[in-house]
């Protein structure tokens, strides 16, 4: 990594955000597949359940590794994070529903497309409204 070392703060932050996102994506997919295939829960309900769980995991990982606190008190930071996450959650649920119910796309592919789409939204809004960096 000599040419692209993680010394540029924005590049480092994006790299860490994507790393956390990949971890959260795999947790989300495994949980989603478990709920659908093993627990026999409807795919859209399973998506909502897995998304809520992963939002909490994502907060902990983002707060620890990606963004520095300091813009708000910890209570306000948590509230702001979850407000942004709520809008991402709504987009997630809506897009998953449209893709699985109306476009008949397999739920794992749908979740992958939705996750990539929501990742940009989450990074921009979390950086702008939640965390200091």
Average residue pLDDT: 85
Rg, rounded, reads: 16 Å
Domain tally: 1
Q: What share of residues is helical?
A: over 70%
Q: What can be said about the biggest beta sheet?
A: none
Measure the end-to-end span: 23 Å
Number of strands: 0
SS summary, helix count: 4
Based on Cα principal axes, name the global outline. Answer: globular
What is the succession of H and E elements? HHHH
Low-confidence stretches: none
Structural class: mainly alpha
Strand content: under 5%
Structural notes for this entry:
This protein has one domain (9-129). The protein has 133 residues and is mainly α. The radius of gyration is 16 Å and the shape is globular. Helices cover 80% and strands 0% of the residues. It has helices at 9-38, 43-66, 74-102, 107-129. The chain is built from 4 helices and no strands. One of its GO terms (biological process) is polysaccharide biosynthetic process. It is a multi-pass membrane protein. Residues 17-131 form the GtrA/DPMS transmembrane domain.
Question: What's this entry about, in short?
Answer:
One of its GO terms (cellular component) is plasma membrane. This protein is mainly α and 133 residues long.
List the defining traits of the structure above.
133 residues; mainly alpha; single chain; 0% strand
């Amino acid at each position: 990594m000599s040419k692209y070392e993680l010394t540029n703060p924005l590049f480092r932050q994006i790299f860490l955000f994507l790393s956390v996102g990949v971890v959260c994506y795999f947790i989300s997919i495994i949980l989603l597949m478990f709920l659908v295939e093993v627990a026999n829960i409807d795919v859209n309900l399973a998506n909502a359940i897995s998304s809520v769980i992963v939002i909490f995991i994502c907060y902990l990982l983002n707060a620890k590794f990606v963004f520095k606190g300091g813009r708000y008190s910890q209570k306000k930071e948590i509230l702001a994070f979850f407000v942004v996450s709520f809008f991402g959650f709504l987009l997630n649920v809506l897009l998953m529903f449209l893709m699985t119910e109306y476009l008949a796309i397999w739920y794992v592919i749908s979740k992958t497309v939705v996750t990539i789409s929501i990742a940009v939204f989450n990074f921009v809004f979390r950086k702008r409204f939640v965390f200091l960096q």
